[in-house]
Specification:
The chain is an all-alpha fold. Helix content is 86%, strand content 0%.
Length: 220
């Protein structure tokens, strides 16, 4: 890869990080609200034996989300990342005894999978695995008899999240493609300017050499 192409790729990656960071900042705010709501609506979570692991797990969960910004450059870590996040979310569900806020963690994880893989069809197995973990989580904590009603609530929400993330991802990729083309045009324009300058220098040099030869021939 040439130097301009390296520079272009680096700039595009930086632009992608800048565009994603505000949304991950919003996600961090949502996790803080989830934490606060869980403590307000479940007084038992304030007990030290549950508060400490719940707080630690949620901080670890948030740190993994923020670290996932680097995953596009490390695709081999994508599946291990989602496996670890699903396990952490599952444990949070056990610690909170199936508190409703855990549903938001699973939905956010499924939406992140769709957005990161950039393809709804490719992400379906991963989303299905996340949903399977959520079903097992809530079945164990809330009881299997409540599962049909829970699924009736979750599946439409999950569908909405996946469609929204897919549409937003397409718009973001469209902007990135437009930025890429614009920067390629800028690089091509700069290169053409450099080539024109070189051609002009070569033309002037050739003309001077021709005039020198003619002068030499005349004097001879």
């Amino acid at each position: 890869m040439s130097q301009p192409e390296d520079t272009l790729q680096t700039q595009l990656e930086l632009d992608e990080l800048r565009e994603a960071r505000p949304f991950y900042a919003i996600l961090m705010l949502v996790l803080v609200l989830v934490y606060w709501m869980a403590l307000q609506t479940a007084p038992s979570l304030r007990e030290p034996q549950r508060l400490i692991p719940f707080t630690g797990l949620l901080i670890f969960h948030a740190a993994l989300h923020w670290w996932s910004l680097r995953l596009p450059a490390r695709p081999r870590w994508t599946l291990p990342y989602f496996a670890l996040q699903t396990i952490v979310t599952f444990i949070i569900g056990l610690v909170t005894s199936g508190h409703g806020v855990v549903l938001g963690l699973y939905l956010a994880l499924a939406g992140e999978a769709v957005g990161m893989l950039e393809d709804l069809q490719r992400s379906m197995p991963l989303v299905a695995a996340i949903l399977g973990a959520a079903v097992l989580n809530f079945g164990v904590t809330l009881g299997w008899s409540a599962l049909p009603g829970w699924l009736a609530l979750v599946i439409p929400m999950l569908f909405f999240v996946m469609v929204y993330v897919t549409m937003f991802g397409r718009q973001m990729r469209g902007r990135q493609e437009a930025q890429r083309l614009l920067r390629e045009l800028e690089i091509a324009h700069r290169q053409l300017g450099e080539y024109a300058g070189r051609v002009e220098d070569l033309t002037v040099t050739a003309e001077r050499q021709r005039m020198a030869r003619e002068l030499h021939d005349t004097l001879s």
